[in-house]
Design brief:
about 250 residues, mainly beta, Jelly Rolls, 10-stranded antiparallel β-sheet, 7-stranded antiparallel β-sheet, about 15% helix, about 45% strand, globular, binds calcium ion
Length: about 250
């Protein structure tokens, strides 16, 4: 919550100039970076705003907040008028059981119920398992959920998965046949988690109609994060509304 307040204060005081000095790319753009930095709503579906990250605060501040499987695989990069968190290659990381190889977790936040939203762009080649992943309910490297959004659904792609001390298992009850990442396009991705009912709902661009649903109560809290099974991509404008783990 603290970072959200600080951002709001800075905008009120007109210290945008400081950002432009620190990040010349912002000043050179068409103003869209300032627009993307607009604070998200304080509440979503009855859940309080807990975190907002637009990757414009500078590499050191950002590094403190994220725990990547391999720091060399991730970088804050200029993209358009602003910056995004980019997964640029394979992590030097071997998961204990068959599951994604590239993960960066938000370090200090553990949630129960949440709505997690981000702008995500896939930067790899087109193929059936072309993916980006979102992680949640993360306990440790062998216990978590992840959503794998990919071109073509099959038993190992484009689904909600659980990793429970064994190779990942698809748990989606409904899902589309795949998602079209396109070329150099950011998509609005949203995950909704209700730990009382166990519901998991995944949205891709259309925030009214989910592309995947699941129901599971194995992990009722945990960290959240982003990444890919084995591909590359960018994440920006991450928003978490939710209930912190007591
Ligand atoms: Ca940004
Ligand atoms: Ca893949």
């Amino acid at each position: 919550m603290g970072s959200v307040h600080r951002r709001a204060v800075r905008v009120v005081l007109g210290t945008v100039v400081a950002f432009i000095v620190a990040y010349p790319a912002l000043g050179a753009g068409n103003g869209s970076a300032a627009e993307t930095a607009a604070a998200p709503p304080q509440e979503m579906k009855g859940l309080k705003l807990l975190h907002f990250e637009d990757f414009e605060k500078g590499p050191e501040a950002i590094a403190k907040q994220w725990k990547p499987t391999d720091p060399k695989a991730w970088a804050v990069m200029e993209d358009g008028a602003g910056h995004a968190y980019a997964l640029t290659g394979a992590s030097d990381y071997t998961p204990p059981v068959r599951s994604p190889h590239n993960i960066s977790l938000l370090k200090d936040l553990e949630v129960t119920d949440f709505v997690l939203q981000a702008d995500m762009k896939q930067t790899g080649k087109e193929y059936g398992h072309r993916d980006m992943c979102i992680f949640f309910g993360y306990q440790d490297p062998a216990h978590f959920y992840y959503v794998h959004i990919a071109t073509k659904a099959d038993p190992h792609a484009h689904s909600v998965f659980i990793v429970n001390d064994a190779p990942r298992v698809s748990i989606a009850t409904e899902r589309t046949e795949g998602a079209d990442w396109g070329l150099d396009v950011y998509h609005k991705v949203r995950i909704e988690r209700d730990t009382t009912s166990g519901a998991i709902r995944v949205f891709f661009d259309n925030l009214d109609q989910p592309i995947m649903t699941a129901e599971d109560k194995t992990f009722l809290h945990g960290k959240v994060g982003f990444g890919s099974f084995d591909d590359t991509g960018n994440v920006d404008n991450i928003v978490v509304w939710g209930k912190k783990k007591e």
